[in-house]
Amino acid sequence: MKFTFRRTxxxxxxxxxxxHNVHKIYDDFTEVDLNENGKKQALRVQRIFCSLPIAxxxxxxxxxxxxxxxxxxxxxxVQDVVLDEFRECPGSLWRLFLAAETRQLTVKEWxxxxxxxxxxxxxxxKALQYNAPVLLVAHGGTYWALAHLxxxxxxxxxxxxxxxxxxPEGPEIWKAEPILIN
Length: 182
Description:
Layout: E1 10-14, H1 19-22, H2 36-51, E2 56-59, H3 63-73, E3 79-82, H4 91-99, H5 107-127, E4 134-138, H6 140-149, E5 164-168, E6 174-178
Parallel strand pairs: 1-4, 2-3, 2-4
Antiparallel strand pairs: 1-5, 5-6
Helix pairs in contact: 2-3, 5-6
């Protein structure tokens, strides 16, 4: 896949926990609030992002992401951009991500995944045009697609509210490092 975005480091944060995460309900069409634990998770990472020189935040329009972003940023002034390309994938696609870990997917199934990954790629291209450093606040499916696009090494899943620094590691590979919370 041809990349047209800047090869600049950025940060990624998956939204805080929701009851749908707890009960493994894969449904992107329902607006879901953060649960109490999700709000606490966002508060725990707030001091990390308040101390970083974030210039731009690009986020999914979904409620759980907007709630996370608002808690994490506190009163920090940044350019705030909502990108529809970072919406969560359909639940059926999440089930394909999981299935890919245990079986071969069909050509049609991979085509569905590629359509979603392409949408995320467009979002990343837009996001990295803004002033750096950029923080992306989105979903687990978005991270999964980014991991494939950027050929991230290791786990392609991310927990709720795990702050992650993503940076280029050569001409084609990127590295994702969780930021430790003290």
